[in-house]
């Protein structure tokens, strides 16, 4: 379900101020890596090389926003 995938994506921000539903995060990760097959193209861990699509680790975090603005 889309809400689960969104919860997983929010978890990638690493923002401790966000309250996440661990069950939704787990279901979203399972969809991401399984049925949706998003992990074939997108990395979700910082420091890993990227596939053919952007690495989404930290995407939307304060640090990421600052880097986009400075670029």
Account of the protein in words:
It is flat, with a radius of gyration of 12 Å. By secondary structure, the protein is mostly helical. Helices cover 44% and strands 0% of the residues. Helix 1 (2-11) crosses helix 2. The mean pLDDT is 87. The N and C termini lie far apart (34 Å). The chain contains 3 helices and no strands.
Which helices and strands, and how do they pair?
Elements: H1 2-11, H2 22-33, H3 62-70
Helix pairs in contact: 1-2
Characterize this entry briefly.
Helix content is 44%, strand content 0%. The chain has three helices and no strands.
Q: What is the number of helices?
A: 3
Element order: H for helix, E for strand: HHH
Radius of gyration: 12 Å
**Strand coverage percent:** under 5%
Report the biggest beta sheet as strand number plus sense, adding barrel if it closes: none
Low-confidence stretches: none
Oligomer: single chain
Based on secondary structure, the structural category is: mainly alpha
The CA-CA distance between the termini, in Å, is: 34 Å
